[in-house]
Amino acid sequence: MKIPIITLLVLLLFATGCQHEQTTPASSLSSAATATTSTPRDEASSRAAFLDAYPVFMHPRCMNCHPAGDVPLQGEDSHPHLQNVKRGPDGKGLYALKCRNCHQDKNLPGEDMPPGHPEWHLPPANMPMVFQGKSPAELARQLKDSKRNGGRTLEEILHHIAEDSLVLTGWNPADGRSKPPLVHAEFAAKMREWVKKGAAIPE
Fold first, then answer.
1. Which end of the chain has fewer CB atoms at under 10 Å, N or C?
2. Would you say the C-alpha torsion 185, 190, 194, 196 has a positive or negative sign?
3. pTM for this structure?
4. What is the DSSP string of 143-198?
């Protein structure tokens, strides 16, 4: 017996609708499962993680390139850079005193010789990202504020901290210079914990 074409179309439409109804709940369950496996918000642990990471930001390997003014800092005592070096609008030096004139692609051997990296620079003048003189609360607020952190999301901040090769030079200092107080992996883990548990401000 032949089934009319119109009947076949109705049956096909009905079958498609049933299939959609069966797959939609599975998709919803998958999203719910993902949500429940995310890190729970824990502001006390978040604040504690940031306070553990904070000394790294205040260490000369980090703070020397994040000064309060337009003069980079030098040395273990974070004194103003000699030779009257200035930030410049792009963070790469001013006039003839460009960072690249002395800071080469890698560290120069010998005590007190310039450290190096192909992109050695300070943050630009319109986004100075100051660490010097910042309390933990002030620094945390700045890192969370896209208008003051270079337009980055917190995830992008974490990627910058964990992956940026210029940041990593802090743990590969030139001769005679100290390393930050946490190993890099621990520092990155503390910052990730801060973000994942709520990016709480340590008041």
1. N
2. positive
3. 0.80
4. HH-TTTTTS--HHHHHHHHHH-HHHHGGGSPPTT-PPPSS-HHHHHHHHHHHHHTT
What is the model's pLDDT at position 82?
Answer: 95
Q: For 155-188, give one letter per residue: b (16+ CB within 10 A) or e.
A: eebbeebbeeeebebbeeebeebeebebebeebb
Which of 122-138 are b and which e, b meaning 16 or more Cβ less than 10 Å from the residue's Cβ? bbeeeebbbbbebebee
Residue recorded with tokens 């100290």: 178
Condensed to tens digits (0 to 9), the pLDDT of residues 114-148 reads 999 999 999 999 999 999 999 999 999 999 999 99
Q: Is 129 left (phi over 0), alpha (psi -120 to 50) or beta?
A: left
Spatial contact of 58 and 131, defined as CB atoms under 8 Å apart:
yes
Q: How far apart are CA 56 and CA 23, in angstroms?
A: 49
Amino acid symbol at 64: N
- Asked if 117 and 124 count as a contact pair (C-beta separation under 8 A), the reply is no
Written in H, E and C, the secondary structure of 47-112 is HHHHHHHHHHHHCHHHHCCCCCCCCCEECCCCEECCCCCCCCCCCCEECCEEHHHHCCCCCCCCCC
